[in-house]
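A reminder from the course coordinator: this example appears on the midterm review sheet, so study it carefully.

Given structure:
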């Protein structure tokens, strides 16, 4: 049974704030040498912007105010209730978890369209359910040509509907 996907449209003011936040995060990551290997590169020039847009969209979906955290903080959850957000620019993109990602959090998968100022919420999955052998990808294993480090790649078809995460949070 296909799950519902939710399109969150961002305003011009929200996009300006997202760009400013992303720029500040990249600068602080470089300044404090917290993330030199993951900062924006020619290959992924919008990595931080996609992250900020995704966080904002999930906050909007749950009707929770977003504060645009300008400092890069490795251990800060994306939402105050511990939810982590993973965004991509690729419409058919996977939810990708790396070994350093939170071991217990639910992860939300998003696809950002910067030009359209929108974010599609694909669904979610608990980290423990993502770390299965069938999702494991090693660099250059032939399964995922873009895989540059060991990680778990969860297809959108294996995600849960955002509605069930919302219901879970209300019950908690």
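Designed residues:
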């Amino acid at each position: 049974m296909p799950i519902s996907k939710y399109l969150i449209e961002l305003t011009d003011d929200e996009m300006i704030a997202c760009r400013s936040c992303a720029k500040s995060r990249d600068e602080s990551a470089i300044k404090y040498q917290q993330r030199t290997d993951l900062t924006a590169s020619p290959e992924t020039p919008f990595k931080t912007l996609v992250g900020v847009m995704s966080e904002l969209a999930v906050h909007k979906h749950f009707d929770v105010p977003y504060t645009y955290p300008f400092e890069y903080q490795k251990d800060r959850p994306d939402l105050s209730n511990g939810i982590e957000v993973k965004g991509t620019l690729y419409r058919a993109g996977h939810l990708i978890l790396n070994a350093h990602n939170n071991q217990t959090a639910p992860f939300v998968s998003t696809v950002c369209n910067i030009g359209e100022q929108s974010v599609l919420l694909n669904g979610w999955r608990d980290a423990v359910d993502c770390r299965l052998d069938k999702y494991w990808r090693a660099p250059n294993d032939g399964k995922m040509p873009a895989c540059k480090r060991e990680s778990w790649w969860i297809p959108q078809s294996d995600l849960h509907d955002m509605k069930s995460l919302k219901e879970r949070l209300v019950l908690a």
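The chain has one domain: 6-171. Residues 12-31 form the longest helix (20 residues).
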